[in-house]
Amino acid sequence: MEISLIIQSIIIISILIAIGAFFSKTFSYNEHTRKMFISLIVNVAMPCIILSSIFQVDLNRETFKLIAFVFLISIFINLLGIGLGWGLANIFKKNSKKKRELAILSGLGNTGFIGIPLCAALIGPKGALFAAIFDAGVDFTIWTVGVFILQKKGSFTFQTLKAMVNIPTAAIVVGIVVAFFNIKPPHLLIQVTEQLAGMAAPLAMFYIGVLIMTLKRAKVRESSQQVWIPILVKLIIMPLVVALLIHIFSVEKEITQTLLIQSMMPSLTLATILFSKYSADEELGTVTTVLSTIISLSTIPIMFYFIN
Fold first, then answer.
1. CATH 3.30.565.10 at 3-209+217-297, yes or no
2. Which stretches of the chain drop beneath a pLDDT of 50?
3. How many angstroms separate the CA atoms of 4 and 32, rounded?
4. Nearest C-alpha neighbor of 259 from the set 127, 149, 91
5. pTM metric for this prediction
């Protein structure tokens, strides 16, 4: 993959984030606007990227095997990142009460908001499909291991299982079933999904730009004592580990590129929502998400260049 394409994509992402930050002053950011952004991205744009990618890719038995492989390797990579974050937090922040949050922020990346659109732009429909499957692995890890870690009682309930059933996951299942039975969707439906899929990247970047403008300097200074752990693990250590794994286990080119891109993604944007739901430090989630996103604009092309 050409480094120039990576740099061009990062520049576009930076511009979109800057636009979001600039126009955040033109409206009131509150719980309602936050929900609107997330609902449009998660429930409309992301499923359409997934469906649009599946509609454009010829799925056969070999492709289904690759899909299963990407899903399982995604879970493995996520768990490895969580383990590394937990280990570093125990070594360097023994007395911190935020070890659970730091572990999750270290292992789970922004593979949906940024990863899928970036893979779609750089690799094409097949890359977007594999990126969506990787993101499904992240979702699975969030609502199983992530919730188990955050829950003080440490139990897995029916509500946890219910939370795993979401529209992007449903889009993956429906798309694969449609492809498996070789059902050809109407041309109008394909066009609609393609149009709506184009919303994903701009909306996600606008949302991150708005988040940047909501940060308070005092909270950033307070969190900076700890956020270096997930940023180091997520942006530096994990891409190198994934590159080593890919070197050992030779896999298809599109999967190699997808795994590398997804492993370089900044910390999970939904961490703030997840932490809020389970009474964890949601402000730490916001600060880490924003700082890791800003820093990733530099580390992604640097890591690609280094790995190449």
1. no
2. none
3. 39
4. 127
5. 0.81
